[in-house]
Every structure is written in structure tokens, then in C-alpha cells.
Design brief:
The complex is a heterodimer. By secondary structure, chain A is α/β, with parallel strands linked by helices. Chain A contains 19 helices and eleven strands. In chain A, strand 1, helix 2 and strand 2 form a beta-alpha-beta unit. Classes of the chains: A alpha/beta, B alpha+beta. The interface between A and B is large, with 42 and 44 residues.
């Protein structure tokens, strides 16, 4: 099996080399080169619908110019992708390729041998995305996925008019952020709009604080539950979070208002002509949460989650991990194509898409906001996947339960850090043993 | 039609098979589609669900009764079960009672049809949509939630909110009293100038006639001062009247004696200055009364942890009261009038007629409504998911919602989800059996 695979890759590699030679194209870390000899039909599934689906089709079309004999059929799984794929795997009929947003699900599939390793693409992935991002798609040293799409969750959005009225500038450090909060308050402006929603926005906030106060190593350990949730580093991060969610007056509608606000509303509170709050801590998907009359940049803008006590630039985010359920030349060729900056630039130029690919030309981004959030992501020294997505889903992925519930409780009762961390630890123990 | 040719006691003739088909063929043809549909969509999934409930998350490992143990030990799930029993205890009784009251009262008013239509209308809306409507009405912010807006109108008429409800003292020189008023710490004697700086006031909330704040001249034999918005873009220096900082006009300033009693009262000018003239020698305090800062009504947290389940029940009762009323009204119309007349002639009061004649005669109809509601309430799902915001879905949880959330809402634990489904199924069965028996009796 392994030998056949190797031989196959060698052939593909050789063909690709010949093709590249014929084309005489440039090659920076696995540029796109095609072949007419790769044939096959592959099916693909991801959550993208609507415009995003249409945009992705243009990526497939561009791929087909290189590989005219491969047909890629994309189907959207919508929000039900995870159960759809689980059922398809159980039924023995998964698509060739799927892009999933949960590394935990990827690990499940890997342990069931449902997805196939793509170690031969590892070098392409590292060259284009860097170690940090590549490792998100690897399990115990085996590469399984290409992270095609990324979400930068280390962003804070603000209302420009509010900032001007209060005379504050986008802060770069945590002290500056707290000073901005106090100045906004003195100007009679509610500094933060917080949408607890089902708890995950607070979980994102925690991850951003934690990777800065405790460091990436501790972040990895906590993700794998190698250190307990009752660890002092967790308590310290929660104490730091109180600067944002600890005081009722700092939040739109107070604590009880924040608890009942869903994420899109928390964004709308800031992206408005008559804003209710000046800032909202939420990922780069904020502008997609509704129809806003405010113009980007002049009306609302974004800054990177500030450094805490001199921490290095770090980004926490999510992403769609494209995995391979059936080994085939065609599927490998397509996954390889997805690692190239050319493929990413097609999506990027359409807007509303962040590529984790470091080799993507910045100027390809069609709007300033996406360019700045995407650059912050690729410039970050460390990238870590959203920690809650790395947890067993009963602990980290269930609305109103486990981790999300604990963070909701934290907003409700920010002084009970000991009680909340104990609850987290108890839930984590249950989830990791089950 | 009957085959009489077959010899009695003899061996069955070779053509017994066609006879069977002759007898049951038509029935089988007519029943087959239904049987297939029931088999594929009811029987098979039911059996599969029961089997699946004994397996773990990914369906490969047999775990016995573990899922059922989790069902009764997990906090989230026990909350769901408890809530569901609350629903069972409260909602069917209320729906039936309210329907009965409406039906009986409607018999006596003139525009009863119009009224019935209004009460029945919610039945035309899907439960999910009704849930969304109530979710909006329950919003806490009185500028958005209808219910809190109504309460706010009443509340503000009784005690209006202050001119500067969000204001805070800019420095510690100004101290907030337990009752909400702000008092200048430093005692004043005639000839002093008081500076009362406030922050936390939106520039748009500053009265339009406000001008640059100034520190007034000292007045011999009097106390002067200024109340101003101690903020300019960037923050400024707290406690100092600076350029670009506006006076706050129209604020009532009190002069209090050392023991707290009010000596005099005045309002500020457009530059924020005020003056108390001809003050007797002695030590005083300058203060701004609590009424200036009284906050506007913040709204009841209907969608908070503690009120969420009653709030959803209310919405549900609103939807189903119409159904209950219509069914009971139909039953009421079928009651022989002469029985009621006879009771009245015998001298029964209206209450006695209602209690001793109408209700007993309506008992079968009331049971139908009650039992139907029992079944619906056990399976309640859509209204809970649409009214309860994500952060309190744990507190509002019910069995059906727990099943959905466990299976499809992120946990992806189909084993536990199946166990919950089986549990719900077992709960519904006794009520179904009861219902079927009653149908038989009535037939």
C-alpha cells in the first residue's frame, strides 16, 4: 500500500516536474503547475454556500485549466457538515475531499483511519503557510490537512466616530486599551459591546488573553489538558479578562444585557450611526454579520488584539482544514493546488476571504480591512487554532455547556474565578475520560 | 363469495393460496403503501434508535446502559428533565383552564366571534415564529422590548429619570452618597469657590445652551461654584476646568449644612456657574441631589436565567389558549340548554351551574384538550429554541431540545442523543395508550 502510494507520488512528481519544465514557470514554494495525465472525478464538501461557493468554483475552474482531465464536484454541506460527514463515514461513502472547521473532528476521522495522510504535501504546506499553521493540520507528526481558509480571531473592532469624540487612538498594548476604555467612559461612551451569545465569543476572548499572558506552550498544554484548568495561568488570564467583562457599566446593557446579546447584535451595536458601544472584541468575520450603513475604515475599523506585558504578536483563529478521504492522484493534485498562492489569490481578490498562505501577495486583497486582518494573521509569530475547537466537543463545542457555559458564568459572576475554574476542570476531566 | 366446495376435514385443496389472496388481496394492496411508509419512517428508525442508544459516540462500541446513566446524572440533562416536568405540571392545566374561561365567558358577550378570532389567531402562526415574536417582546432594553417598554412608560411617569443619569464624579473630591447624590468632600465657608466636575456624560446629552465652563469669582459673604463636564477629547486633566470643557446648565445645586440639612438651592447658568448669596458664616457642603442622577428604567430581564422558563411557558400558553378555547366552545355548544335552565330554575347560582353542571358535562372535552396538551408539552421544542437566547438555553432546556443539542447541536453524540429520544418516547407512550383506550371506549 505504502509503496504503491510512494511510486504514485513519484510519478505525479515527475510529471509535474516535466510540466513545469515545459511551462518554464517560476517556482516559489510549490507554484501551480498542471498535467493532462492526471485524470479522475473527485467530490468535495465544505460549509461554503452562496457567493463563497461561486467564488470557490472559480478556483476549481482555474485548477481545471491546469488539470483539464480532473473533474471536481463541489457540494455544500452547510451548517450540518460535521454530522453529514460523520454519517457518510459510518456509511462508508465519504466525499474524496472535505474541508472541516474542527481539528477535533479531523482527529476523530484520523483515529478511525477515515482520512489519509498527505505527508508528501507537507513541504509545500510548510513553505506556503509556515510551521505554525501546517501543524494545525498534522497529528503526531503526520500531515492530514491543508488549511485553506483562515479566520483571524485576534481582532477588536471599533466605531471611528466614538474614538474621535473621545479622542482616543487604537491601542497597541493592554494598558493603552484600558486607558482607552476609561477615556471613553469619561466621555460618556460605553466602551464595550459584548455579546455572550452561547458563550463562544467569551471563549475567543479568553484564548486571546491566554496566549499572550501564558504563552504558546501553555496554550498547547491547556488545549490537550496537560495542565488543569485550575492552573494559576488560567486564573491570571481570567483576572485580566475582567478589564473587559468584569464591570457591568463597561458593557452595553450591563452584565445582564451582555448575557442576552447574540454575536451579530454585539457587532451591530458598534457598526452603527448611533452606536451603543465603541468596541467589540470579535473575529474578522464581524463585517459579515449584517447590512451596515457605516463605511469600513471611515465608519468602523479594526485593530489587532493588543500585546499584554510585551507579548510577541500572536494570532488565535480558526480555519477550514481540507482533508483527503480517498487516496487518488486527482485528489492529491487538487489539495496540492490549494497550497499554492495562486489558488489563494483567486479567492482573496473576491473579498471576504482570508488566506493563511504567507506567499499571497498583500495587494491581492481587495479591501483594506481584510488586508490588515489577514496580514496580522500571516505576520503573527505564533498562530494557534481556537482552543475550544481543539477540545472534545462535549467540553468545547457545545452551546451552553462545558467551556462555553463556564465562560457565560464568568461574565455573570466575574469574581468567582476559583469556582469557575473548578467547574471547568471537572467538566474537562469528564470529557477527556469519556 | 364464501368457498363452500372445500370438503370438511379433508386436506386443503391446492388452490387454497388464491383463496387467501381473494380474501385479503385488496386489503394488502390498500395497506401496503402505508405499511411501507410506516416501516421505513417509523418502525425501522424506532428500532434503530433503541439499538443505537446502547452504543457510544461513534457507534462502534457497545456501552450498555451508560448513556441512560448519563441521562440521569448529567446536570444539563437533569435540568432538562426537571424543566419538562414543570412544563407538564403547569402548562396543560393553564391552557385548559384559560380555554374554559374564555369559552364560557364568550357565550355571553356580543362580539364573541371577533373575540374568538383574535384568541385563535396565534394558532395560525408557527410555534417558531411565535417564539421569535416573544423573543423580541421580551428584550430587556426598554427601547426594544415591548413588554419592558410598557413598564417603562408607567415607571417614568411615576418617577422620571434624571437629567444626567449616567454622570460620574470626575475626581474623588466629589463623593457619591448611598442615596445617589454627589457631595463635595471639602467643607465650604462663605467666600469659597466650589468645583463640581462630572464625567461620563455623552457630548450629545449636554444641553444645547451649554458654553465653555468658567470658574466664577469668589463672592464675599457667598459661595460660588461651577458644575461642568470635566472631559475633553483625550481625557484632559480631571478636576480642572480646561478649554473645550462645557458648563452644565440647569443643574440643581444644593447647599447643605454640616449636619446634612438643606440650606439653599439654586440652578446653574449656561457656563455651569452658580452662586449662593448672603450665606451666614459657618461651614457648608455643596451637593447635587440624587434625582439628577436617577437612572432610567433598565427593564426586567425576562430572558435571564431565572425568568426564562416561565417566559417561554407564557408564550406557549398564548399560542395554545386559542385551540383550547375553540374545542371547549364546541363542546359547550353541544350541552343541552335545558339542563342549565333546569338548574337555574331550581335556584342554582351561576357559579353553581358552572361548577356542578357545565364542567362535569364538559369533562370529556376537557380531557381531550388536557391530554393533547400533555403530549405536545412533552415534545415541546421549537418555541424553546426560538425564545431562549444561547446563553440561557441550558436553563430553559427541555428533553426534546436536549436530544437535538446532544445529537446535532455540536456534541454529535448520537448514542446519548438516541437514549434521550428513547426516554422521551417512553414518557409519551402511557399518554398515547390512555388516549387510544379512550377513543375505543367512545367508539
Amino acid at each position: 500500500m505504502r509503496h504503491r502510494w510512494l511510486a504514485l507520488t513519484l510519478i505525479v512528481g515527475a510529471l509535474a516536474f516535466v510540466a513545469a519544465g515545459c511551462g518554464g514557470g517560476d517556482d516559489n514554494g510549490g507554484s501551480a503547475e498542471g498535467s493532462e495525465d492526471v485524470t479522475g472525478d473527485i467530490s468535495m464538501m465544505a460549509v461554503w454556500t452562496g457567493t463563497e461557493q461561486q467564488n470557490f468554483q472559480t478556483v476549481i475552474d482555474a485548477f481545471n485549466e491546469l488539470y483539464p482531465n480532473v473533474s471536481v464536484k463541489y457540494t455544500s454541506g452547510g451548517d450540518n457538515l460535521a454530522p453529514l460527514l460523520s454519517t457518510a463515514v459510518q456509511g462508508g461513502n465519504p466525499p474524496d475531499i472535505a474541508c472541516i472547521a474542527q481539528p477535533g473532528l479531523m482527529a476523530d476521522f484520523a483515529s478511525q483511519d477515515a482520512i489519509k495522510p498527505i505527508d508528501d504535501l507537507r513541504q509545500d504546506i510548510v513553505d506556503n503557510f509556515g510551521e505554525s499553521v501546517a501543524d494545525v493540520g498534522a497529528i503526531d507528526g503526520t500531515q492530514y490537512a491543508v488549511m485553506w481558509k483562515a479566520a483571524n480571531k485576534s481582532t477588536i473592532w471599533y466605531n471611528v466616530a466614538d474614538f474621535e469624540e473621545a479622542g482616543v487612538d487604537p491601542p497597541e498594548t493592554w494598558e493603552d486599551l484600558n486607558a482607552a476604555r476609561d477615556t471613553l467612559k469619561a466621555a460618556g461612551i460605553t466602551p464595550y459591546s459584548v455579546g455572550v451569545d452561547v458563550g463562544w465569543p467569551i471563549s475567543d476572548l479568553f484564548e486571546n488573553v491566554y496566549i499572550r499572558t501564558a504563552g504558546a506552550d501553555n496554550y498547547d498544554k491547556l488545549s490537550k489538558h496537560e495542565i488543569p484548568w485550575t492552573d494559576q495561568s488560567v486564573k491570571d488570564a481570567l483576572t485580566t479578562m475582567k478589564d473587559i467583562v468584569g464591570t457591568s457599566d463597561d458593557m452595553v446593557g450591563g452584565t445582564s444585557g451582555a448575557l442576552q446579546t447574540d454575536m451579530p447584535t454585539s457587532v451591530a451595536n458598534v457598526f452603527s450611526d448611533s452606536p451603543k458601544g465603541a468596541m467589540v472584541v470579535i473575529g474578522d468575520f464581524a463585517p459579515a454579520q449584517g447590512e451596515f450603513t457605516l463605511e469600513p475604515v471611515s465608519g468602523y475599523n479594526v485593530f489587532t488584539f493588543p500585546s499584554i506585558d510585551g507579548s510577541a504578536p500572536a494570532a488565535v483563529g480558526g480555519g477550514d482544514l481540507c482533508v483527503n478521504f480517498k487516496e487518488s492522484e486527482a485528489a492529491t493534485a487538487f489539495l496540492k493546488y490549494l497550497t499554492t498562492p495562486e489558488a489563494a489569490e483567486i479567492m482573496v481578490s473576491k473579498g471576504g476571504f482570508t488566506s493563511p498562505n504567507k506567499n499571497v501577495d498583500e495587494s491581492a486583497y481587495s479591501d483594506e480591512i481584510t488586508r490588515s486582518t489577514a496580514t496580522a494573521l500571516t505576520d503573527a509569530e505564533t498562530f494557534r487554532f481556537d482552543m475550544s475547537d481543539l477540545q472534545p466537543s462535549s467540553f468545547g463545542g457545545t452551546p451552553g455547556a462545558g467551556l462555553f457555559k463556564a465562560f457565560t458564568d464568568f461574565v455573570q459572576n466575574p469574581d468567582d474565578i476559583d469556582g469557575i475554574t473548578q467547574k471547568m476542570e471537572a467538566d474537562a476531566n469528564k470529557a477527556f475520560s469519556g | 363469495m364464501t368457498t363452500v366446495e372445500a370438503p370438511r376435514g379433508g386436506p386443503l385443496p391446492a388452490d387454497a393460496e388464491p383463496g387467501f389472496f381473494q380474501r385479503y388481496g385488496a386489503a394488502i394492496i390498500f395497506l401496503a403503501p402505508t405499511l411501507v411508509l410506516l416501516g421505513v419512517w417509523i418502525v425501522y428508525p424506532t428500532i434503530r434508535t433503541v439499538i443505537r442508544s446502547f452504543y457510544g459516540r461513534d457507534g462502534s462500541e457497545f456501552v450498555g446502559l451508560d448513556n441512560y446513566e448519563t441521562l440521569f446524572t448529567d446536570d444539563t440533562l437533569t435540568t432538562a428533565i426537571r424543566n419538562n416536568f414543570l412544563w407538564l405540571l403547569i402548562v396543560p392545566a393553564f391552557v385548559t383552564a384559560i380555554g374554559l374561561v374564555f369559552a364560557v365567558l364568550l357565550e355571553r358577550i356580543r362580539f364573541s366571534v371577533a373575540f374568538k378570532v383574535v384568541v385563535f389567531m396565534p394558532m395560525a402562526i408557527s410555534l417558531f415564529a411565535a417564539g421569535v415574536i416573544w423573543r423580541l417582546m421580551y428584550e430587556q432594553d426598554p427601547s426594544r422590548g415591548t413588554i419592558n417598554a410598557g413598564i417603562a412608560v408607567v415607571k417614568d411617569a411615576v418617577s422620571p429619570s434624571g437629567a444626567l443619569s449616567s454622570a460620574q464624579p470626575s475626581t474623588e473630591a466629589l463623593e457619591e452618597q448611598p442615596n445617589g447624590s454627589l457631595v463635595l468632600q471639602k467643607p465650604l465657608v462663605p467666600g469659597d469657590v466650589a468645583q463640581l466636575g462630572l464625567t461620563g456624560i455623552r457630548s450629545s446629552d449636554v444641553p444645547g445652551d451649554a458654553v465653555q465652563a468658567v470658574v466664577p469669582e469668589a463672592l464675599s459673604g457667598g459661595i460660588t461654584g461651577v458644575v461642568w463636564r470635566d472631559f475633553k477629547p483625550g481625557g484632559g486633566t480631571p478636576g480642572q476646568v480646561e478649554q473645550e470643557e462645557l458648563g452644565l446648565p440647569g443643574i440643581t445645586v444644593e447647599l447643605r449644612s454640616e449636619n446634612g440639612g438643606r440650606v439653599a438651592e439654586t440652578t446653574t447658568e449656561s457656563d455651569g456657574t452658580f452662586a449662593f448669596e448672603d450665606v451666614e458664616a459657618g461651614s457648608y457642603r455643596a451637593a447635587i441631589g440624587a434625582s439628577t442622577f436617577s437612572a432610567p428604567y433598565a427593564g426586567v430581564s425576562w430572558l435571564g436565567q431565572s425568568l426564562i422558563t416561565p417566559a417561554i411557558m407564557l408564550a406557549y400558553i398564548w399560542v395554545w389558549a386559542g385551540f383550547s378555547m375553540v374545542v371547549i366552545a364546541a363542546g359547550l355548544a353541544a350541552i343541552p340548554r335545558d339542563l342549565l335552565e333546569a338548574a337555574r330554575t331550581d335556584g342554582a347560582t351561576e357559579w353553581q351551574v358552572f361548577r356542578r353542571v357545565t364542567v362535569p358535562l364538559l369533562a370529556p372535552v376537557l380531557t381531550v384538550v388536557f391530554v393533547t396538551m400533555l403530549i405536545y408539552v412533552l415534545k415541546v421544542f421549537d418555541i424553546v429554541i426560538s425564545v431562549a437566547p444561547g446563553s440561557v438555553q441550558d436553563d430553559a432546556n427541555v428533553i426534546a431540545l436536549a436530544m437535538w443539542r446532544t445529537s446535532f447541536g455540536g456534541v454529535n453524540d448520537f448514542g446519548l442523543g438516541s437514549a434521550i429520544a428513547v426516554f422521551l418516547f417512553l414518557l409519551v407512550i402511557p399518554i398515547l395508550v390512555l388516549n387510544i383506550r379512550r377513543f375505543r371506549r367512545e367508539a
